[in-house]
Amino acid sequence: MSYPDPVLSDGRIGLRMWREADVDCIRLASTDPRIPCGTTVPADFTPAEGLAFIHRQWRRAETGEGISQAIVEVDSDRAIGLMWVAMRPQPHVGGLGYWVVPPARGQETATAAVRLAIPWAMNALELRRLEAWVEPRNLASQRVLSRAGFQQEGRLRKFLTNDHRSSDALVFSLIPA
């Protein structure tokens, strides 16, 4: 799998391959208990664990699992989040995941990043469907997906497991016209 070339950008927000220098973004992500709970971000951050996280992101493309990119502020090239497009087992179906570090929230950063990822993922990965699974309590993520054109399709009961507890997942999808 290949990363977008050139990198994706709207002039304010960009998506690019993770760099080891982005380790501070992983540190900030670990300060929000919700991010490590549902991802592989280390809950107990150390620089070594942060680098291991970045190296795992690189391997995802190498193994064909999907493409994980840093969400960056274009002006500073500072990583402020993650955008993940996974390949589902079903042909031509992708899964979307993302997070933004607490200091960068409330600026529609996640919505901008999702909007950047959509056309690239649909074309480059030959997707016919892009879906996201969201905990029902995660209203911010539901708003991001709705603003980016996703539609809520349904609920998968007891589908997600975080911190050894099960929760429902709301299914959002985007299908090209």
TrEMBL record:
GO terms for cellular component: cytoplasm. Residues 13-177 form the N-acetyltransferase domain. Keywords: Transferase. The keyword tRNA-binding does not apply. GO terms for molecular function: protein N-terminal-serine acetyltransferase activity; protein-N-terminal-alanine acetyltransferase activity. Pfam families: Acetyltransf_3. PANTHER family: ACETYLTRANSFERASE, RIBOSOMAL-PROTEIN-SERINE ACETYLTRANSFERASE. This is RimJ/RimL family protein N-acetyltransferase. It comes from Krasilnikovia cinnamomea.
